[in-house]
Amino acid sequence: MTVTQEQAPTRPEHLNGAGKGAGAGRTEVTEPAGTRGRTAIADTVVVKVAGIAAREIPGVHDMGGGLSRTLGAVRDRVPGGRPHVGRGVKVEVGERQAAIDVELVVEYGVPVPDVARDVRENVIGAVERITGLEVVEVNIAVTDVHLPGEDPGETSETRVA
């Protein structure tokens, strides 16, 4: 689905063939150049902007549910594979507004309400600034807590040597 930012203006007389007089094909266009035409923003644009904005917040370890993160980890290990910045983000985009759902994995020890508030503010700011859409809501679901030493590549202290 794509969104239309601006409505196409009605066609000037010279494009409709309705011009008058000697300069029939050359009528002055009174609308500014920036408003002549439409801008369409795809859902994937909003997903990527929101995903990047959410990951910028300290305390966010990862995004997405368990299966999504597992598939993402496999994709990240494939040579030439790039991380999917939109993992854990779903959007509904209308003509002028967007609603966003974000799934987070937070670091252990950080206050979840604070992380959620910061993610919400950053996502809204980034999406509105970059796309011009009004963000009506950002729903956040914290799906997991990352514990220290939980990653396979991470070393943890052992009690015995």
What's the helix and strand layout?
Elements: E1 2-4, H1 13-16, E2 40-42, H2 43-55, E3 60-63, H3 66-77, E4 89-93, E5 97-107, H4 112-131, E6 134-146
Parallel strand pairs: 5-6
Antiparallel strand pairs: 1-2, 3-5, 4-5
Helix pairs in contact: 2-4
Structure explained in plain terms:
The chain is of the alpha+beta class and 161 residues long. Helix content is 30%, strand content 24%. The chain has helices at residues 13-16, 43-55, 66-77, 112-131; strands spanning 2-4, 40-42, 60-63, 89-93, 97-107, 134-146. The model is unreliable at 154-159 (pLDDT under 50).
For the report, how would you describe the main beta sheet? 4 strands, mixed
User: What is the count of helical runs?
Assistant: 4
Helicity level: 25-40%
Q: How many beta-strand segments? A: 6
The low-confidence runs, each spanning 5 or more residues with pLDDT under 50, are 154-159
Radius of gyration: 24 Å
Mean pLDDT: 80
Classify the beta-strand content into a percent band.
Answer: 15-25%
Element pattern in H and E:
EHEHEHEEHE
Please state the structural category: alpha+beta
Report how far apart the termini are: 57 Å
Shape, principal axes of CA atoms: elongated
